[in-house]
Amino acid sequence: MTAPSPRAKVQLTNDEWRQKLTPQEFAVLRQAGTERPFTGEYTDTKTTGVYECRACGAELFRSTEKFESHCGWPSFFDPADSDAVVLRSDDSGGMHRVEVLCANCHSHLGHVFEGEGYPTPTDQRYCINSICLRLVPATG
């Protein structure tokens, strides 16, 4: 399920990432942190548009795949493009999870969960930190 990923297209040093990101963004995107539940900017957003990686600007998710999971973080049932994210095994914190990374810059986004019973086409929940995303509203 989690094959080795190709090298990130965007590669910066930690110092370069620190110049580009706020301390809070750096802690989540580059150090695999997690924002507190129900505090993120996009948890309850219903705006139509595209969600980009806050670190590199790559398109990750679309509002058409966002759903209300009531878990405290924005949830999507599928990435915008199957190659938009990379999945990696994560055994930190004494549990097994699947980490979601931006395929373009390998920044940490959150985790994906399966088989939770949500009424979505994929039976997956991409649980993504708001601070990792930037919503570009649809125009027109």
TrEMBL record:
GO MF entry, a single one: peptide-methionine (R)-S-oxide reductase activity
UniProt entry keywords in alphabetical sequence: Metal-binding, Oxidoreductase, Zinc
GO terms, biological process: protein repair; response to oxidative stress
Any Gene Ontology CC annotation: cytoplasm
Cofactor(s) required, per the database record: Zn(2+)
Pfam families in the cross-refs: SelR
Keyword presence, Zinc: yes
Domain of life: Bacteria
Catalytic activity reported: L-methionyl-[protein] + [thioredoxin]-disulfide + H2O = L-methionyl-(R)-S-oxide-[protein] + [thioredoxin]-dithiol
Heme as UniProt keyword: no
Coiled-coil ranges (or none): none
Domain named MsrB: residues: 14-138
EC numbers: 1.8.4.12
InterPro entries: Met_Sox_Rdtase_MsrB, Met_Sox_Rdtase_MsrB_dom, Mss4-like_sf
Protein name: peptide-methionine (R)-S-oxide reductase
Originating species: Mycolicibacterium madagascariense
Gene: msrB
